[in-house]
Amino acid sequence: MKNTFGFQNKNGRSLGIVLAGVGLLAFARAVYRRATRLDFRDKVVLITGGSRGLGLEIARIVQEKGAAVALCARSEEHLNRAASELGGSVLAVAADLTRAGEAQRVVDQVLGRFGRIDVLVNNAGIMLVGPENVLEAEDYQRVMAANCWTALHMIQAILPHFRARGVGHIANISSIGGKVSVPHMLPYSVSKFALTSLSEGLAAELKKDYIHVTTVIPSLMRTGSPRNISLKGDHEEEYAWFKIADSLPLLSQDARKAASCVVEGIAAGDTEVFLTPVGRAASVMNGIAPGAVTTLMRWVDRFLPRSDSKHVKKGYESESEATRGIIGSRTDAAAARNNEL
């Protein structure tokens, strides 16, 4: 009996030491995160794709926290509306970031205005929805250029400045489509997988230079963006399933909440931020059981529309009775709020 109790006491002490060690590590991590947390007051935040949608919501939040904001997008019209709403010292720069020289021009212009850049948010991108049989190589190239090369060009343009200052923050807005390939969104998924890989690799390599890289993984969000996506195939049917899914509260996240999660992740210096538990679960499942996830995606594909049309239409050109109803009204309201009209 003595030996048994002695063995139990020894195990109890060992468990206590382990738990104390875990608690001490958790406490040290919390102290470190608090000490290194980014305060947005008087910081300069450059947001690509910042004139509407998630980018605009991020701009609103960091401005509320005291940051100076620089927005970059292709459309001068959307940029001017966003800058007018935000007011203050907002700088709006129109540029096509698929061209490396344009990225350098944007960085130089922001530095010329504010003297420094503290945070880069790579949010620029496009979406093309349609079945595989109507997609062409040019579709993949166009989406890849918008969703991955724009981020790479901006990062390469800004790194010399961050290295010279000895600090910097980069947030790359990827997607759950960059963790799990989604039917009828192949070019988008390909580009987001590439962006996720780039972001994760940079997070490892740039840490020694005190440059923090955060990979953001959103799921569906009610930003109002569906009306501006490109569609191939059966335009009305493709738009219907996408917009309805985007409007359902159980499937999509409020854009303001999503932007708050992004800003919090940047402030905390997180390496990866999943905006929804469903997105995290899907990513974990794809890592543990990729075959099962692929089987599920096959079933999803069976219910999606079929067509041979290679003609491209925008979402707003593909409205139908189904998308104009009460279900789609949430997305319409978000579009009005987030400068997507």
Describe the structure.
It is a single chain. The protein is an alpha/beta fold and 341 residues long. The protein has a domain at 25-126 and 137-226 and 247-277: Rossmann fold. The protein contains eleven helices and twelve strands. A seven-stranded parallel beta sheet has the order 3-2-1-4-6-7-11, with helices on both faces. Strands 5-9-12 form a three-stranded mixed beta sheet. The protein has a two-stranded parallel sheet with strand order 8-10. Helix 4 packs parallel to helix 5. Belongs to the short-chain dehydrogenases/reductases (SDR) family. Keywords: Oxidoreductase. Residues 43-224 form the Ketoreductase domain. This is SDR family NAD(P)-dependent oxidoreductase.
